[in-house]
Sequence to fold (96 residues):
Amino acid sequence: MQDETHSGITAGRIEHVLNNWLLRGVRAEDDGRQSIVYLAFVPGTDKMVRVAVSMDDRVIVTAFLDSKATLRWNRGNRDYFVQRYRDLEERYAGSL
Fold:
């Protein structure tokens, strides 16, 4: 991961998200950069954790507690995710 570490994020939590994601998709930034984004709930947190990984799967770009995604998920607003990510995949909890 890059130099900056977000509060509440540990290597174990990042690993949990990458192994147990609920949503995964490609995020394109305004400047053209892209990343693969993984979202999951992690034990010990009450929010979704977002982990963004470089498109070549070599670098963790960022990881943080995502309040907006948590709110949208809890309200059942899947359109929020469809609008933000392309090639969006949703993994059902029963498949874990």
The chain has a mean pLDDT of 89.
